[in-house]
Amino acid sequence: PRGAPIEEAMLAPPAVPPPIHRDYPARVIVRLETREVVKEIADGVRYDFWTFNGTVPGPMIRVRQGDTVELHLKNAADSHMAHNIDLHAVMGPGGGAAVSMTPPGHESVFTFKAMRAGLYIYHCATPPVPMHIANGMYGLILVEPPQGLPKADREYYVVQGDFYTTGAYHAPGLQTFDMQKLLLEQPTYVLFNGREGSLTGANALTAKVGDTVRLFVGDGGPNLVSSFHVIGQIFDNVNVEGGTLINHNVQTTLIPAGGAVTVEMKTLVPGTFLLVDHSITRAFMQGALGQLVVTGPAAPAIYDKVSSGPAAPSPAATPMAHAAAPAAAVNDAMADGKRVFGQICAACHQGNGMGLPGAFPPLAMSDYLNANPKGAIGIVLNGLSGKITVNNTGYESVMPAFGTQLSDDEIAHVLTYVLNNFNNKGGTIAPAEVKAVRA
Ligand code: HEM
Ligand code: CU
């Protein structure tokens, strides 16, 4: 019935609540709970997040312009902090914060009318505000115009945030919040949806060739402005700053801290497209990387390879030389080596180990590497520069040192992984050998 209140579905990101098909304003009940939870921020790295409903970002809220929202804010009994909520869709003091300060174990309720269509950030506004936001307390609320949004085949929900941990990027174990880094605005991690890998691999966003994909993208901050870009795509429509102004054919769109944007794109070509903050260090060295995997028929009229570099060995043709070794430890070392390769080496030497002509030498079938496998220990520990020749091709570039970022185990594992893949000649590097070179 028309007058009955509607319970808002509270979904975990990147899920988006379904479009609204109502043609009348309703009372919408939104239930949020602030929870302080320890979760992984990256593989092997844990962080004490402060959240709405246990996720970063909190659930996306979707209402219609003219709706009255009845917002219930609970603070879990085991919280250490009071929390509240400021929704940028609210017209009133503090955006709700003035009437929602909630101690642990309590609940606040307030109502607001969604006056203006748009895509808005919500966040905790409890002092110290930057700390509550830096710990993950934000999300998006979409206020649909009365006529709704145009139909899209896929909708996803992504929020960027900057995180400040005492340990360096990828330093393992439980990391605590670093106030000094926050003040300097020098984050350790810049992330989509609060975790490195939240939108990659098995968690990648998906679409089919020919789909219209709509992303609701926010920037929780607390500090950094996002230069949001999808590598290999052009945004057909961008609701600039989350408002009603629509721009077309946009490559990269700015999202202010505490702002949002709706982007729509047509996926015309199959493949993997990378979501990045095009302040690109953040994408490749601080975690702000996601994937949109598009499947379907190739579209050579739009995108086609004519010729390039030497042919890559097919993955099927590169069995691991030592795959017969039964010990679980060997498999663990290989799995860890594969992980390190994917997280560090592949950025330059490429996922197939073929490198990039003129820039990064191949690790696949590398005569340089296979002639002196132990020499690679020093290369990974200390970096490499100057002229070298790999498979009859000269390189004169710089590889950074990874001695502080990677442990002896990790370096041993990644080199063992490389030596036993990509048609290399096999062999093992032991952690003790790395230790000896490091000393
Ligand atoms: C060279 C391994 C990460 C850039 C080399 C070489 C090895 C190697 C064995 C010697 C040449 C060859 O055999 O092809 C690794 C491993 C990595 C890693 C195991 C991950 C732990 C990276 C990254 C970059 C990079 C992330 C780019 C930022 C280079 C460059 C050279 C090189 C430019 C040639 C240096 C020169 O011209 O003197 N790497 N690498 N490497 N690597 Fe890496
Ligand atoms: Cu809070």
Structure overview:
The protein has eight helices and 23 strands. It is an alpha/beta fold and 439 residues long. The strands form five sheets. Strands 1, 2, 3, 5, 7 and 11 form a six-stranded mixed beta sheet that branches. Strand 16 (235-239) and strand 17 form a beta hairpin. The chain starts with 5 loop residues before the first strand and ends with a helix. 41% of the residues are buried. The model is unreliable at 314-326 (pLDDT under 50). The structure holds protoporphyrin IX containing FE and copper (II) ion. The site of copper (II) ion has 7 residues, from loops.
- Give me the Rg, rounded: 24 Å
Average per-residue pLDDT, rounded, comes to 93
The structure class reads alpha/beta
Number of strands: 23
Which regions have little confidence, pLDDT < 50, spanning 5+ residues?
Answer: 314-326
The biggest beta sheet is recorded as: 6 strands, mixed
Proportion of strand residues: 25-35%
Offer a few descriptive terms.
23 strands, 33% strand, 8 helices, binds protoporphyrin IX containing FE, 6-stranded mixed β-sheet, single chain, 439 residues, alpha/beta, binds copper (II) ion
Write the layout of secondary structure elements.
Elements lengths: L5 E2 L19 E16 L2 E8 L8 E4 L3 E8 L10 E2 L19 E7 L4 E6 L5 H6 L3 E7 L9 E10 L9 E3 L3 H6 L4 E4 L12 E4 L3 E10 L4 E6 L3 E5 L6 E5 L1 E4 L3 E8 L4 E7 L3 H5 L3 E7 L32 H22 L17 H5 L3 H8 L1 E7 L2 E7 L8 H12 L11 H8 L1
Parallel strand pairs: 1-2, 2-5, 3-11, 4-9, 10-14, 13-21
Antiparallel strand pairs: 2-3, 5-7, 6-8, 8-9, 10-12, 14-19, 15-18, 15-20, 16-17, 16-19, 20-21, 22-23
Helix pairs in contact: 4-7, 7-8
Bound molecules: protoporphyrin IX containing FE and copper (II) ion (CU).
The site of copper (II) ion has 7 residues, from loops.
